[in-house]
Amino acid sequence: MVKVVKFGGSSLANAEQFKKVASIIKAEESRRYVVPSAPGKRFPDDTKVTDMLYKCYDLAAKGKDFTDSFDAIKQRYYEIINELSLSLSLEKEFEIIKACFIGKAGRDYAASRGEYLNGIILANFLGYEFIDAADVIFFTESGSFDPVKTGEILKARLENVERAVIPGFYGSMPNDTIKTFSRGGSDITGSIVASAVNADLYENWTDVSGFLIADPRIIDNPEPITVITYKELRELSYMGAGVLHEDAIFPVRKAGIPINIKNTNAPDDPGTMIVESTSQKPRFTITGIAGKTGFSVINIEKDMMNSEIGFGRKVLEVLEKNGICFEHMPSGIDTMSIIVHQAEFEKKEQEILAGIHRNVNPDVIDIETDLALIAVVGRGMKSTRGTAGRIFSALAHAHINVKMIDQGSSELNIIIGVDESDFAAATKCIYDIFVTFQL
Ligand code: ASP
Hints:
Elements: E1 3-7, H1 15-27, E2 31-36, H2 49-61, H3 67-83, H4 91-102, H5 107-126, E3 129-130, H6 147-158, E4 164-165, E5 170-172, E6 178-180, H7 186-196, E7 201-206, E8 227-229, H8 230-237, H9 249-255, E9 259-263, E10 272-275, E11 288-301, H10 311-321, E12 326-328, E13 335-341, H11 342-360, E14 364-377, H12 387-397, E15 402-407, E16 413-419, H13 423-434
Parallel strand pairs: 1-2, 1-7, 2-4, 3-4, 7-9, 8-10
Antiparallel strand pairs: 5-6, 9-10, 11-13, 11-14, 12-13, 14-16, 15-16
This protein binds aspartic acid (ASP).
């Protein structure tokens, strides 16, 4: 049995957290490959080391004095080293990093040092081999992850290594410069390593006991999700459910490796298992509810629209030319609505309206703003009659007007558009009907 374990920033924020991490790793022989993040927040108002590094580098890049900012970063690491009583000096590393900051090695290089240094400390503390991610994780010329080169080199490198620490978040470009994934990207590194060693399980350790059915900022103490499929998670994470970087799903999913989200501060909690498919019946008809505010709708009307060949393409071409992606596109016989992210759309609004006029000459175009989308997701909905009925009668009883409905043919999700002011109330009444009243 081989497990790849990834620990997030809050799990490695200070020496006390390092000790918890080490005891989790040592508790199971199979936890052989470890992927750490940079030290995160120790308390709510604290600053993550990654953010300190970005700030410090920005000063250096502007030619300003960055001594204090750099010392504060050093202090974070030295505090960990001293409190763990390690005989490890990072002085040489810090000298190199300082010189590279002065030499303007780039923001990605700067940010990556957070994971790099934390990896050195963790490897020393555990007595594991340290493998620099720059030697085993690769990006292509265009800056996207290179799965082929990485797969070959990483697999070969780990073949005869019993136990290792590989820092998350970064890798190298063909010209040997450092590049990072997007924020939270250590999750992706963990997934890549799990796939390379053909792990039995990818454990992703964080500061919550897995996914919850709904956002705890809206619902008091929502029930946890014990098992979720990759597909369900995609539908939920796409709507902003956080916890795991959405790109972290792909490498393990391809290799058929499940992910277990676990809590470093409550290691006995089962957490959430993310699996390809399962025969386990879900506890409730729905697996989760996720939502997001900040959408706009472009409503287009034109008589005989449905018989005009190429109408949809001509409209979407305008969005494409303006670099805007659309979220949904419900349509009627003479109407078509396109749902877009308000913040992106606002910047290009007039160009887009002019473009649509030019391309399809509509009778009416109007714009609605401040829409919230709520995704109700669950494999249990597939063959259950009345799911949509229950949702909409609950919303009607709560006096919430539904502005848009979209159910995918997979029957895995129902997406509902409501006014932003109804967002929390709508989420709550859907949660209550499927979860609270079923407990
Ligand atoms: N340290 C990086 C960040 O704060 C990457 C990570 O933690 O996954 O985004």
